[in-house]
Amino acid sequence: MPARKALKASTPLVLFAAIALAACGGGSDDGGGGGSEGGTAAEATNCTNKILQPDAKKVLVWAWYPNMAKVVDNFNKANTDVQVCWTNAGQGQPQYAKFQTAISAGKGAPDVIMLETEQLVGFEIQDALVDLAPFGADQVKANFSEGAWKDVSQGDAVYAIPVDGGPMAMIYRKDVFDKYGIEKIPTTWDEYAEAAQQMKDAGGPAFGDFGSNVPSAVTALMIQKGAQPFQYDLSDKQNITIKLDDQATKDVLTYWGDLVAKGLIGKEDQFNTDYITGMVGGKYATYVSAAWAPGYLTGQGVGQGKDSGNFAVAPLPQWDPANPVSVNWGGSTFAVTSQTGDKEAAAKVAMELYADDASLEDGWKTQTIFPLNQNVLKSDEFVNAEVEFFDGQTANKDIYVPAENAYAGAVYSPFTVYYYAQLQAQIAKINAGQVTGEQAATDLHAEIVKYAKGQGFNVK
């Protein structure tokens, strides 16, 4: 959802300075959270919302969706045996830092926590999350695509329940394309580069942007080309395969670096005021982004007033159109922490919070989230919705739903935050002309391998 995606612009924190291969952290099965006796989880007090059933079990939830108050009220109205006590402990990294502090202290975590999919493994390896499979997770598996479920699973274990995602596509300005004679919407990355050159030759603005502060998006584009940055299985905690100096990664970094060097695209950091002003003013002809972008941009005033009706969306350009690859940028989940004293009640909340029809409808209609629940993705109302931001285009049916259903999932490392920080640094060097894309990939690989070994991993 939009407010969370802006966090991609912040400087990552190295949460796991010493990854606990010896399984530090984690609570006991008989501990009590949310008011239960003997627990290590934080007490479910000072709730932001109203508890409707005071005598029911209370489950403390940390989450930052902007419509969370309505979602929590929907859950509490529908349940008499369990009530959610919700608090916003920070958006993204600030919340993760608090959670890591609680893990290290062995107390103070919530019962249920909102986590981005790419952050799950880093907490799983510390035994900080509960496997939800014994608590009925498979009962909701059919609600999600294969890729969405893979992102939250490790073998037969399920460590979170998906809520929203970010299948990627290419947003473009129809008015800018028309003004500078771009008649063909790029379907391949070669065509994207050709259109960028055509626009520059015609005196147009930057065709796109390669900001250093969107490492998650860049990683997705690397995967689209065929890269497999990490291979990691939680059942084999000690070993990890790292492959960041492969040809696919080099090709992607070289491609975008060349566009920057030729002055065809910008290199500004995204999600800041200058970038948004540029979006409003037509400084960028395209925005390679995700399904949450319309909501984020609308919330920032893009596409309104004189800008209204100027935006459209097309499928993400491909390297090989005969073998299209769908990738994902962003997405959040609900996970149960190992400090909870009532895993069954917490699992119920993780599986059912933001899963009811009313909450999902509010989420997608307000463009707060792009839901991953198939009950929504297959509904006529959602599929055929005429998206106002895209001048009435049926973007869900034509672009985003097919992209989500084709997404195969990804493998994340136990140190995503550190990896993203190093990738950001390399992109900044590319944009400054200090290194080539190939050299950046080589240097990135060396740095991440060094870091992994320093954390006690055997690197294959």
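That was protein one. Protein two is written in the same sequence-then-structure order:
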Amino acid sequence: MDFKLLQELNEERANRRAAILITDTASGKQRLVRHADSLSGDPLADELAKRFRSGKSGMVETEDGRELFLTVSVPPRRLVIIGAVHISQALVPMAEIAGFDVTVIDPRTAFATPDRFPERFLKADWPEDALKDVPLDAFTALVAVTHDPKIDDFPLKTALEAGCFYVGALGSRKTHGKRLDRLKEAGVSDEALSRIDAPIGLDIGAASPAEIAVAVLGSVIKALRKGPEGG
């Protein structure tokens, strides 16, 4: 393996950035494609996009018969939940089973307690402070479920700016309309606002907190595996 490419790949890994090392199995030639790179014009664009979503390495054959091995490196997926509410209590164990690194953020000490959530998941701070230790990125999903603009709005804006692969918020259409007005006044573009999944979760008729948690996790996984076109 080219030592310079190895250094570059390790640098991407260390900074929670995805990359794919492409190796021509016949010639040994290699190139590195970063998640932030434009795939426009790349003959492997569709395949690379799929691999970034799946995180799976493997062999592909090009139209001219060459065999390439794609070594895919993606950071562990995170789920950041704003609000230590009943929905979050159901969502945390399900998301962990699904393979997400989970963090629950809530400054309200009546909700953010160790008897409601294992301490390894919990940050009982305002999002402005907690997110300094859990920086948002393209491999993070954020769900806001407090119903409190003072708590939800900052992380929603931050998640959109960071390019989180999923951003969702709890609330009725009326509540969400007011939320959009506030975020727009804060400088968020209409294009970015359109990325917020609200009312949150898959439309499965969920009623109880546990059912809503199922719907939310379903939306998160759909966005992860199918990308924007899947939604």
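Residues 103 and 166 are 15 Å apart (CA to CA). Keep this in mind for the problem set.
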